[in-house]
Every structure is written in structure tokens, then in C-alpha cells.
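Quick question about two entries, pasted in order.
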Amino acid sequence: YNEYKSYLRSMSKILLCGDGNGGHVFTALATQNCNVQVNVLSLYEPVRTKWQAALRDGAILEVLREEKDISETYKGNPAMVTDDAKAAADGAKILVFMNPAFTHDAYLNALEPYVTESMVIIALPSQPGFDFAIRKAWGDKASLVDVVVFDTLPWACKMSEIGKNARIYGTKDSMYGGISAKSKAKPHVTAALELVQRCLGQTPELRVTRPKLGALMSTLGLQIHPGIMYGQWGKWDGKPIDEVPRFYYDATVDGATYCERVSEEVLGLGKKITELFPDVDLSSMVSLKDWYLNTYGPEIGDKTSLYTILRSNAPYASFKHFVKEVDGKYVPDFNVRYLTQDIPYGMIPVRGIAEIAGFPTPMMDEIIYWAQRCIGKEYLVDGKLTGKDIPETSSPQACGITKIQDIVYA
């Protein structure tokens, strides 16, 4: 207990990898709720320079939270916004990753020289290949750090003006995290999680109840976004449309079905792994429908099925599909993170685990074949992850991992 308290007192700096919507919200909440120093590592020059300019001009970042019966404003600036990984990491024992998966490699490579023992990485959220990416970037140094992964971003939020304003539209009641048994027993990991909880406030409640592998495989992006996209545009005839469909509230029956089938395959893979390794407990993995009910219960208007849940979950009512305008009408834009991120860093890693475990995933395969055509990539060839673009993914195949035990017991 005394060791835990000592760690908590020493954690006065947080290194934040993330300068987008979530990064803005986290910065304001952390500085106001906990009075901690937040060092923002930003490797994206357009955002970095604008945020730095806002700081020089004396702007104070304000985050408006308006949801349910809550109307609150949080204010607070980072101590620095920099692309200097050494400066950002100096004295920081907690690394919060709140950046897109396609940027993880760049951040991990930049930080590699400054990795020290007892650092704690908290991914809000992670992607299924996050562990593989850490191992690929840090090699033996990966064993020095403890990693806690969560399945989603804490809020539905949007940055209005870089370094100045952001807004929270919805806050999750709880978030389910994963951690290895070895890391869970360490006092400094407990202290890091408590500090991040205080930064976020009472909600969402961080519940670290799952083995890390189960949490990584259950990441929501791969189960939701590609299926909804495939349901909306998989049979598109190529003709421009008159109105932009809402992403969730106009979800199709097919789209909801695809999401459910992907969820079933993820759960089936978890069951397969526990059959191969009876000492591995993945019983905390839940279906996509149950995740929605556990996370958004009071916000959902119709809980009958996943289809009705997607179309009545209040915080996401206004989200629309990404499109491009053509002569006053619209065509889908496939160069968006729901495909360019959630496929190579979400679905492909889980599909890669399934391939090594010998577990079939026909729904994932169907979506991957369609998605890779849409984004001009090649991952899946003749039912195997041997495409020319596999090295760009965070799959076990990209890391040279061929044995299931090297995944399960990592």
C-alpha cells in the first residue's frame, strides 16, 4: 500500500500521444480535474503548429460538455505541444495513447530511445494489433513497460478549433480494459490507472476486468465500422445520391447483420483459444449487442436488436457517412479511418490471429475482400494474409509471429 501511494505521488506528468478530438478533451479534463502536467507529443505538423500558436497567443483550451442534464465547461492547457519525443517523455511515467492506429508506429519509433522501466502505457482506445506494434518498434524494451488497453474512446467528441475549443456530445458510463496478470499485480500500474480515472472524472468508469488478449480482440472499431460501411455501400451502384445517410441512425439491416456476424466470429475465436489453452480465461468477452447495452443502456431508445440499437443510440444521432460532393450530389469517400484504419489495424490483426489458430472467419473475409478493393490495398489473397500490403498492418504476420502461444502468453 505504501509503495502504491508513493507511485501515485510521483506521477505528476502524463505524456499524451494524441492531438486530435480526444487529445483536446483529455488535456482540458486532466489539467482541471487533477492539476497534472500534460505533455502533448504531436507528430502531425499542421495541428502541432496551430496548437503551439494558440498557446503563444494566450488561448486557454475550453471543452464544453452538453449531454443529458449536464452542461459543464472544462479549461486547461498542456505544458507543451511538441514533436520532440525526448522533451515530451522527460519525467513522464504514464503514456496515454489517444491517437489513430495508423500513427502508432511513428509515435512508438520516436519514443523508443526514451523507454524506461516502470512506464505504463494506457491506450484509450487501442487496436487489436497494438501489442504487436509495440513489440515490433521496441524489441526487448517492450518488456520494460506495462500496457493497459481499452476498447473505445471515452467520449463522442469533436474539436472545434485547434488548441482552443472542443465539445463532448456523449460520455460512456464505463469502459472495459485489458491487462496481463503480471502487470495487474504491480502497484505502479494500479496508481497509474487511478490517476487517469481522476483525470477523466467519475465517468467513464475504467473497469480493467479482462485479460489483455481478450480486450484487444474485442476492440469495437473492427466490429462496427467496416460492417456498417459494407452494409451501406457494398451494393452501391456507383450513382451519386441526393442525401448523406447518417452513419448509425440510417444503418441498414444488412449492415447490422454483418456487424453481428463479425462479433460472433470474434467470440468464436476467443472460445477456440480457450479450448487450445484451458488456463486462458476469455469469458469476459461479450457480444457487440451486450457491449452497447452495458455501455450506453439509458441512452438507447430501442434495445430490441443490434439493428434498432444502432439506429437509436442518442449520442451518435448526428454522425454521418463520409462522402464527396459531385455536382450537388454525393458519392462515398472510402479513404476514411473506418476502412483505412479499422481494416489494417483492427480486423486484419484479429483475422491474423484466427489464421494462426486455425479458426475460420468467413464474414471478416468477405468484408476484407470488399474493403481492400475500395482502398486500393492487398491483404487477403486466396484466403491467406499474404498480400503485398501486409507489412503495413499491425498483424502478427507483419511481425513474423507464427505460433499461437506467442500471442496468447505475450
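Here is the second entry:
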Amino acid sequence: MSSKVASTIVNDSNSAKQKTNGSQPQENGIRKRRTTLPAPMFSRSDFSVWSILKKCIGLELSKITMPIVFNEPLSFLQRISEYMEPTYLIHKANSLADSVERMQVVAAFAVSAVASQWERTGKPFNPLLGETYELARDDQGFRLVSEQVSHHPPVSAFYAEGLNNDFIFQGSIYPKLKFWGKSVEAEPRGTITLELLKHNEAYTWTNPSCCVHNVIIGKLWIEQYGTVEIINHSTGDKCVLNFKPCGMFGKELHRVEGYIQDKNKKKLCVIYGKWTECMWSVDPSTYDSFKKSEKKWVEPRKPKQNDDSDRSENDEADDMPEVQETVQVVPGSKLLWRVASRPPDSTQMYNFTNFAVTLNEMDPELIRVLAPTDCRFRPDIRAMENGDMALASREKERLEEKQRGARKERAKNEDEWKTRWFQLSTNPHTGTPDWIFTGEYFDRKYADCPDIY
């Protein structure tokens, strides 16, 4: 990291807000985190998305250089750290004596991890090879580090631990993005592992697929779909969650429904809700009885009649179905998780959550301890966050060209890239290849870190 970049981060002269990147002063020894971004989101209305995407149909987008208009001012490594927003659920699971109750809360944590994606239609920046991100939250009881361990294919590895040595949360994500004409599909390959050390338990799962609709015309909207299996490798219990696709009339939009079964495949409880709102658990027999009685009273839904005069220029868009704002709660259900409210001006901040707003925050104290590869030092993301889109675009192009040049130089010298904080090994619970944390990052020995910015 150059001194110029560090100076820009702290001493931006555009506005008083940008000088501290929105950071709040510390009071009574307690650090106050920022609640807004330094500049409002830019308008995408004047940009022709089709002029770029028409060349990409059926291709994997991670291999294509995309204009900055598609982005939000966060790296994908920072987006991964949003898994930790509901860390209180991990602490709650640790506090429970019953393994089935722990599985219910772990399932809620797995669902809540994708909740921040709702209405987040901007694409996070692709991490540069060797890029890192560190996040320490004393108030939530964890610290996290992540590293971009591979560029082609793009693989991001992360590791988080409880400050009281009560849990470990780690994994590696290989996001595959494809454009299908009117939508972009994201398939987040990779295994997630949560260890509750107090109970000597390990849970593993993979995330659902995500689709952003109407990238060409119409209102952008997101759906998650696919089956997520959470396995408790200690007890043999399994939670199967079905993230339902939209379906006819949008009846299933955002719905998640599943069950927990023991190693003998006996259903122990039903879990249901919406990944955008809340999750509940209930006894299987109670759930089945409620569903049977519900079917007796449901009248067939009549298709909505549309007059030709109501048609708009967005006729060809896949309109998002009307969203039912609440989940119908089965009597006797137990609330597992409810989504947190977003900032009142979230729509002007890329639809960020309160947690996401803080992720790129920087102050002089952080500059002294972070690795020089931390994505808070990326000048393109910083410029975009500060509202300077022209500078952000130039810096993004410069960094990508620098990365290509470094790759050519390694090939010329027959040098292999070496990761710094993670090593390719075997996940001890699944037996599959995985990137494992070496444990050395927090020693703060950064002498051999690459110059990527």
C-alpha cells in the first residue's frame, strides 16, 4: 500500500464527511460506527445495460470485465463478511443444551446469511488475487479474515472465530455468475462449516442459488432457490431447507420450508418462513394438521385481469409478483429469527443494511494494524463510495491491468502464486477439498504481502 492511498483514505478534501469516510468519533472508550455512506448512490438510469450484456449471454461473468455501473462499493470479500451480521444466533445456539434446538438456530443462521442480499442488485467488486479483508467486532464477539486465494477460478476463503474461543465459522466460496438474457444467475459453490466448540459439534452446508431478474428492462428483483442441507456431523441430524422458486402468481416468492430429521430419518420439527422476513419452527404433526385444514378453506385464485391501457413499456420484463409482507404463523410455532430493519435512507446507499454500511469504514487506528492487501485500501472502491465514479472507473481499470501484468510476469519467470493465510487441504468433516486457515494472520507479519494496489 502506498502512502498516497493511505493519505487519501483519511484526508479526502471533498467534504467533511469524506475526510473520515463517515466514521464516528469514539466516546467514553466506545467506538461509534458510521450509519451512512460518504456519498449517495449514483443513478444508473442513463446507462445502457444491454450494450454490455448482449455479448455475454450464456457466459460466466467472472471472466468478463464489467463497467463500474454494475457495482456496489464493497469487495466480494466484504460481502462474505455479512454472514456475520446475525452472530447473536451462533451465541444463542451455543447456549442451548438440546441438539435439536441448536440445529433450529443454526438453520435460522444459515437462512439469515442471505437476507442482506434482498434488493442488493449491485455487484460487489471482484477481489484481486491476494486481496484480504479483516473485520473485528468486539460488540458481537468475533473476528474474521478472508483472502482471495485464486483468480481463475475465483475462490474466496474466510475464517471467523469467537473472541471467547466458543465457535469457528469458515469456508470457501466459488461464485459462478451467468447471464441468461433477462437475468443473472449466481451459484455460490463451496462448503460452509460452523463449529460449536462448547458442544464439540460441526455443521456444514452450501448456500442456495440466487437470480437477479430484469437486468435489461423493468424493475430489478431477486429470488433465492434450491435445496440447502445442513448436517450435524456429531449427531447425524440433518436439516433440509427448500428455498422455493417464485412459482405461479408469486405465491412461493421468498418462501423457505424444511424440516429437521435424526440419523434414522425421523422428522423432529418443521422450519418455515421467508428469507426476507423471519423463520419459525413447529412440531411436524401440528404443521401437517394446519396445512390440511388450510387447504379446505382456500378458494382458487383468479388470474389478475389487466386492461391494455395499463400496459407499459416494460411489457417484456419478468415483473416481480406482489409480495405478501407477512408469514402465516402456524399456532404453537416458535420464532427463530426476524430480519433487522435497514437504515431509513438505505435506497440511497445501494440498499445496504446497517452492518454493510460499516464494512468499508476506515480510521487511522485501522490503517496501523491492517494488512496492506486489505480491500479497505482499494482506491476504486473508495472512490466509488465517495461518489467519484470517473476516478473509480479509472482505478478499477488500472488495478485490473496491474493484476494482468503481474500474472504475465509470474508466467514468464515460471513462478507459482502462493497464498498467504489459507492453504488448500481437506475439510475434516466432509472429506472434500477446502481452503483451511493457517492461523498466522493475526501475528501481524505482513513483510511478504504482495503489492496489489
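Reply: The longest strand covers residues 167-179. The two ends are 6 Å apart (CA to CA). Hope that helps.
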